[in-house]
Amino acid sequence: MNPTDLPLTERLQSALALQRAAYHAHPVPTYAERVDDLKRLRAFLLENQAAIEAAISADYGHRSPHETRLAELVPAVDGIKHTLKHLKRWMKPQRRHADWISFPLAKNRVIPQPLGVVGAIVPWNFPINLSFVPLSAIFAAGNRAMVKMSENSRRLAALLIEKSPQYFPPEKLQFFDETGGVGVAFSQLPFDHLLFTGSGTTGRLVMAAAAKNLCPVTLELGGKSPAIVADDFPLATAAERILFVKCLNAGQICTTVDHAWVPQGKLEDFVRLAQQLVPRMFPSLDSPDYTSIIDVRSFQRLLGALDEAREKGARIVPLLPGPAFDTATRKIAPHLVLEAPADCELMRREIFGPILPLRGYRTLDEVITAVNAGDRPLAVYPFSHDKAVIQRVLDRVMSGGVSVNDALMHVGQHDLPFGGVGPSGMGQYHGREGFETFSKLRPVFQQAPVSALKFFGPPYGARMDALLKFLIR
């Protein structure tokens, strides 16, 4: 029987069994084999670039191919290059100090070994970045992988499923489309590690399902990541950098600036700057460089959140000339929101769209207190040239990552770990940390020809008392 003809649960279990059998037959791929896997990943992307860009744009309704290259293909290809450059060093056993009980002649080492089969549940907003960047770490660590795509990435999923066998056998890599119930069944599989990227609500369900198998998880979630513009920082520079990131992918980024804190006396200046800056990037709502909202539900949610804020007294400022939205293309113009009440949806939940609430402040402690009153964010973005201000934010506000004087930049640094904290996620990957996340860092103790334990056995007496007194001091 063709595996695709099997019922869903059996098909997933069959794929996992195939990969696990292959792992047991060859549990530790060589350096050369891992390099080959990474080069195949890169070829997969480069040889199908145009088709990937077209599929993602079709899934969105419209997304600029330039944004797909900038935010997806460049990080994925560059991440593979970084991994290839450092893989040999990452794979080397680590020498560790041998303690008293073994005598100096004993040997301690930590050897990174493959976990086995890793599952990855991928969201729709950056489906190539958030599948191929983890895959580079998963394969570098010597594992096999099953990847479940989003229900909003149907065309891309079909393309990846079709093309994948040209680069990898099914016992190494398989992609799965979300056709209904796949995500639930996928998260219940007894993987050796499970990576989930998506909302906190779904992340909790995934973690609960994985817990039944004692499957370790890495959760990359989201949250309300704030920008904090200090009074000393040039406002025009801060506005330009914040708005570029907020408009990228129409704000549909888990690490984007969710809202911005601006000195109270500079709020109107920020508004005027935004009204000048955004039309330079996108002259109108139908600009081919501006991305659609992913689906009707998200489109209506964002418009509803704007209406609710307006009805509760917030000031809504559209940043493009002409209509504020277009139902046919599901495009929403970038908006600023001032004086949004604390109980409105824009202030209570992650926005995930091209809407930027501005919040005025008088003291930095006021901002710190407000941010700490909510969930720990995935990122925080302080803008200041004052080292004391930056250090105070770093010391007092915990977040998954930090970009100082810019936004999102920490995400694209391959030699920095990426991951959330608390409600914004757990675990991390990218670069060496990705290699280690998907490896078992296995401690190996090799005893010396003479073991110190022979001096500590019974019958106990004065000699033992003297030895223990020497050690406990």
Automatic annotation (TrEMBL):
List, from the UniProt record, the residues annotated as the active site of this protein. 220, 254
Q: Which PROSITE patterns match?
A: ALDEHYDE_DEHYDR_GLU
Q: What UniProt keywords apply to this chain's record, in alphabetical order?
A: NAD, Oxidoreductase
> What InterPro entries does its record include?
Ald_DH/histidinol_DH (IPR016161), Ald_DH_C (IPR016163), Ald_DH_CS_GLU (IPR029510), Ald_DH_N (IPR016162), Aldehyde_DH_dom (IPR015590), Aldehyde_DH_NAD(P) (IPR012394)
Q: Which residues form the Aldehyde dehydrogenase domain?
A: 13-442
Provide the protein name: Aldehyde dehydrogenase
Return the similarity comment.
Belongs to the aldehyde dehydrogenase family.
Q: Which domain of life is it from?
A: Bacteria
Q: Kindly state one GO CC term assigned in the UniProt record.
A: cytoplasm
A molecular-function term among this protein's GO annotations: aldehyde dehydrogenase (NAD+) activity
Write down the Gene3D superfamilies for this protein, in alphabetical order: Aldehyde Dehydrogenase, Chain A, domain 1 (3.40.605.10), Aldehyde Dehydrogenase, Chain A, domain 2 (3.40.309.10)
What biological-process terms (Gene Ontology) are attached? Answer: aldehyde metabolic process
